[in-house]
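Suppose you are handed only these lines of text.
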Amino acid sequence: MSALPQSRPEFPALFRDQLTTCQVNLGYTCNQACHHCHVNAGPNRTEQMSGETVDAVLDFIDQHKIATLDLTGGAPELNPHFRRLVTAARRRGLRVIDRCNLTILEEPGQDNLAAFLAENEVVVVASLPCYDRPNVEKQRGKGVYDLSISGLKQLNALGYGRVGGRLELNLVYNPVGPSLPPSQIELENDYRRELAERHGISFNHLLTICNMPIARFRHALERDGRLDAYMDTLVHAHRDENLAAVMCRSLVSVDWEGYLYDCDFNQMLGMPLSGRRTHITELSDANVDGRAIAVDNHCFGCTAGQGSSCGGALA
Ligand code: SF4
Ligand code: SF4
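From them, the structure of the protein bound to iron/sulfur cluster can be written out as follows.
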């Protein structure tokens, strides 16, 4: 990632609090190839976490006080060890999150995926950048809207998304272009009304996430000559109070080969945990709490405006 002009401030130093979440990228294979994808995932990517590395992740969970396993990709469900990892983590009492693109629920061979997620009480966090077809398809490709709605209906039919229910379904919004997300609360109300009226769909929460200026989205901004303006937007909207809640304070991110990072974004930028390429098997006995986090100018994407993290707005 190229350095920003000197006139822009440096991102403040950050240190990890207590580690509670292990976010695992199971590989870059995906049935979609979205324009904003920060991992450049797609159908032609073949990188997948091996069974041995999945075992190492489980050992890591056993050796640390991990309460949440957060599974991402690509489409994490396409990894052949996905279901084994989910059931093993649930047996250990962990909260398991599946970052699901919804269309995977409609893919051939994935007919019983929704039922598997429900049976294991997996929290589904699903991307839906708008309740309107054109905005969804502009960002995620033609045909994605109808498949996403079908996927949501499958999940609702199994009991996902009911207020006070045991099956949690959260939707993720990210802006279609280089702008900050609107108010999470107001947008959640809009989504709730529109999805209910148009499709009879319900969900628990809407999480608003800022597009990070990295990977495919960054390349698109560079191509259109809009990268500088977007970085200015992020830097000017930075709020110090968001620093306390960014996800890297309590999370480590594991790549498909088992190497560790402070977050999924740093993983994509090749910025390793503690500045040294460390495999998950090497960190087994070490304490990551209190260590410095590798930050750079992309981090302003987490602290701009109401803030943004894998769990939505921070403020
Ligand atoms: S954004 Fe998600 S669904 Fe789209 S290509 Fe990337 S991993 Fe796949
Ligand atoms: S990009 Fe990663 S390291 Fe930077 S603030 Fe966000 S979560 Fe933390």
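What can we learn from it? Residues 30, 32-34, 37, 39, 41-42, 73-75, 101, 127 surround iron/sulfur cluster (ligand 1) (CB under 6 Å). The first helix runs from residue 51 to 63.
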